[in-house]
Write a structure and sequence with these properties.
It is a multi-pass membrane protein. This is Transporter. GO terms for molecular function: gamma-aminobutyric acid:sodium:chloride symporter activity; metal ion binding; taurine:sodium symporter activity. The protein has a two-stranded antiparallel sheet. It is mostly helical and 628 residues long. The longest helix has 34 residues. It has 31 helices and 2 strands. Helix content is 68%, strand content 1%. It is globular, with a radius of gyration of 26 Å. The protein has 2 domains: 524 residues, Up-down Bundle (Amino acid/polyamine transporter I); 61 residues, no CATH class.
């Protein structure tokens, strides 16, 4: 069949785009409810809604507190070499793949794989497990930020000085430390700063270990409830309304570049290092975290695009925005840390931290030394909340969309979707309460280190590329993309999906396992064996989905793989067609139902599995085929 005719048939496979109706449940058309038809999903009201929603989804806290620290830790400029390799060889290709897949199938993170390559449906389930665990603990950061924001509305920042009810005799203010004569006279060898004691003794009231979980911190529990309520009301009618807020978020972040940036350039310039295996691991995991890929969220957002939307162009622009924001925030953060190091008379290595240590210890300490400290503290924690909430909205929406698309006839009717969102938010809140106890920080670190770790994301990304490039067929997917955007993307995407990204992901995955170190807290507290085991259960709960679903699909097949492969051509001529074609016939009863289209719809799944089955039969094993 000619290429033009093939693309025309691909175009006819898709339903007409739908415009949203205000006041109705997202994904449901009023005329469908009135006529008793099966509910159909809607589309974005405008292109800007999609762009801003995606920008808000992956421009988040990782850009602010993880990228700057990793860049400094791994040698400044030397870190950028593996970072850009993973960016162009892994991050951007997988990001575009997920958005294009959602747009092509108009399905969420699970059902898109069921339609494109059913034997790899486990990819969708793995993504949902990861994002569900991520949603439980990520929002706890926002609860801490909200608590800090409330504490800012006082005549004096409570973490600026000692002599607070929670301070100990070891608390020493920075003004005393700066005066070296007074500092040596005090003979203070075992000291803590007021901001550290505020964080550990007031905010967390941290216990001695995960074995001592302790009671709830009710102030944090209320803050956690507040941010979940905000999250619910921002997504219960869809993410379209939240995307428009992203512009304010980005401007607030850029506004933080308030101090001379020369210190930041000096930091990067003075760092001399060569990339090591750990640098590559850090670069790879940072790319996958910052682009929010392998979570099903980008696929869900892309599924609301109109079929002819140029997602390739916008994915490239959004990728530039994401990485550019990381660099801008890196300069902003290290400008502040450089100012703080200069004020204290110490090296910047003594104040550089990552994660919660940067957001709730280093930066609050820095703003307490600035003019108008209360103003800068309020601006910082507002920025933290805006960035975090936007990412949380998108991740929860991706989770909800994926599950709703599994049962559209049930969950898209009336207000069932809203009720389902409320139930999911409430369940996540209850599970998150374990992280706002006195031992909650240990639980939080366990989730952060294992549940949504880079190992899990790399595992999912590897199979995504294998499924699209080697099973469905990279040329078939390129045909679909060409029909959607009107031209074929740069061949680099094809090479990345086929070879570069799988090699990078598997290499980084292996290195991560080889370099694995058990989790510790503050490099002092060592987690017990049972906690480490629980962490690996969290990690494997998502990774096991892909091979498990694959085995289930094969066991549910009708016959031996080789026999199925030999009768494939005959079935094309006598049967009404595979499930994929039946679905297309229901959507488009008047278009493209000829043998050429059936051949076009056929994927390479049977061919690939035939080889596997044949090899197994050589050693006396029987492997049934996955029947479509």
């Amino acid at each position: 069949m000619a290429q033009k005719e093939k693309l025309q048939c691909l175009k006819d496979f898709h339903k007409d785009t739908l415009k949203p109706s205000p006041g109705k449940s997202p994904g449901t058309r009023p005329e469908d409810e009135a006529e008793g038809k099966a509910p159909q999903r809607e589309k974005w009201a405008s292109k800007l809604d999609f762009v801003l929603s995606v920008a808000g989804g992956f421009v988040g806290l990782g850009n602010v507190w993880r990228f700057p620290y990793l860049c400094y830790k791994n040698g400044g400029g030397a870190f950028l070499i593996p970072y850009f390799i993973f960016l162009f060889g892994g991050g951007l290709p997988v990001f575009f793949l997920e958005v294009a897949l959602g747009q092509y199938t108009s399905e969420g993170g699970i059902t898109c794989w069921a339609k494109l390559c059913p034997i790899f449906t486990g990819i969708g389930y793995a993504s949902i497990v990861i994002v569900s665990l991520l949603n439980i603990y990520y929002i706890v950061i926002l609860a801490w930020g909200l608590y800090y924001l409330f504490q800012c509305f006082q005549p004096e920042l409570p973490w600026a000085k000692c002599k607070q009810p929670w301070n100990t005799e070891h608390c020493v203010e920075d003004t005393v430390r700066k005066n070296k004569t007074l500092w040596l006279a005090a003979n203070a060898t075992n000291f803590t700063s007021p901001v550290t004691e505020f964080w550990e003794r007031n905010v967390l009231s941290i216990s001695t270990g995960i074995e001592d979980i302790g009671p709830l911190k009710w102030d944090l529990a209320l803050c956690l409830l507040a941010v979940w309520v905000i999250c619910f009301f921002c997504i219960w009618k869809g993410v379209k309304s939240t995307g428009k807020v992203s512009v304010t978020h980005q401007h607030t972040l850029y506004f933080l570049v308030i101090v001379d940036l020369r210190q930041s350039f000096e930091i990067l310039k003075n760092q001399q290092s060569h990339p090591t295996s750990q640098v590559w691991i850090d670069a790879g995991t940072q790319i996958f975290f910052s682009y929010a890929i392998c979570l099903g969220a980008m696929t869900s957002l892309g599924s609301y695009n109109k079929y002819k939307y140029n997602c390739y162009r916008d994915c490239l622009l959004l990728g530039g925005l994401n990485s550019g924001t990381s660099f801008v925030s890196g300069f902003a953060i290290f400008s502040v840390l450089g100012f703080m190091a200069q004020e204290q008379g110490v090296d910047i290595a003594d104040v550089a931290e990552s994660g919660p240590g940067l957001a709730f210890i280093a930066y609050p300490k820095a703003v307490s030394m600035m003019p108008l400290p209360t103003l800068w503290a309020i601006l910082f924690f507002i920025m933290l909340l805006l960035l975090g909430l936007d990412s949380q909205f998108v991740e929860v929406e991706g989770q909800i969309t994926s599950i709703v698309d599994l049962y559209p006839a049930v969950l898209r009717k009336g207000y069932r979707r809203e009720i389902f969102i409320a139930v999911m938010c409430f369940m996540s809140y209850l599970l998150g309460l374990a992280m706002v106890t006195k031992g909650g920080m240990y639980v939080f670190q366990l989730f952060d280190y294992y549940a949504a770790s880079g190992v899990c994301l790399l595992w999912v990304a590897f199979f995504e590329c294998i499924a699209v490039a080697w099973v469905y067929g990279v040329d078939n997917f390129y045909d679909a993309v060409e029909d959607m955007i009107g031209y074929r993307p740069n061949p680099w995407m094809k090479w990345s999906w086929s070879i570069i990204t799988p090699v990078l992901c598997m290499g980084c995955f292996v290195f991560s396992l080889v370099k694995y170190k058990p989790l510790t807290y503050n490099k002092v507290y060592e987690y017990p064996d049972w906690a480490i085991g629980l962490g690996w259960i969290l990690a494997l709960s998502s990774m096991i989905c892909i091979p498990m679903v694959m085995v289930i699909k094969i066991l549910q097949s009708e016959g031996p793989l080789i026999e199925e492969n030999q009768s494939k051509v005959k079935r094309k001529q006598t049967s009404p067609g595979p499930k994929w074609e039946q679905w297309l016939n229901q959507a488009h009863p008047h278009h493209c139902r000829n043998n050429d289209v059936s051949a076009l719809c056929e994927r390479n799944t049977i061919d690939v599995l035939s080889v596997v089955s044949y090899l197994l039969t050589l050693v006396g094993l029987h492997c049934p085929v996955y029947s479509r």
